Amino acid sequence: MADLIQRWQEQKDNPxxxxxxxxxxxxxxxxxxxxxxxxxxxxxxxxxxxCLACANCCSSIPPMLNRTDIQRIAKHxxxxxxxxxxxxxxxxxxxxxxxxxxxxxxxxxxxxxLIYEYRPRACREYPHTDQQSFSKHLRLHKTNAQYxxxxxxxxxxxxxxxxxx
Length: 165
Hints:
Elements: H1 2-11, H2 20-28, H3 32-46, H4 51-54, H5 56-60, H6 67-77, H7 81-88, E1 89-91, E2 97-99, H8 121-125, H9 138-144, H10 149-163
Antiparallel strand pairs: 1-2
């Protein structure tokens, strides 16, 4: 497990691992076959990547929260929605509500999430590489490969698989 995380840390900033051309190639292949391939590779990679050993997403990417997320988390914390927003959220440059701080204030020292059962939709769906969302989020994968060893290795394996056919 640590091996894939270590390889990602060593390779993610190398220009030849940026995957720009590969993502452009994937844009032409959108559809069910691409999503099925991604889902298979997603399952393989995440059998070897332990998110709790990394937690880089929680340490470096402030998640977007929708109105439902805000209300659910505020209720769980016993806070009024406005107080939750004032304490934890800010509006980003795109007009989206995101966590004010990184690392996430709900990330515990053992990389567990204090509000895991109530976490935002963006956190539940991250890294968007399963069959349900891979082709819908192609533009995110290049960026997410810089933050998530799973995404990095999914793209790497998909590229190798497609180059061998």
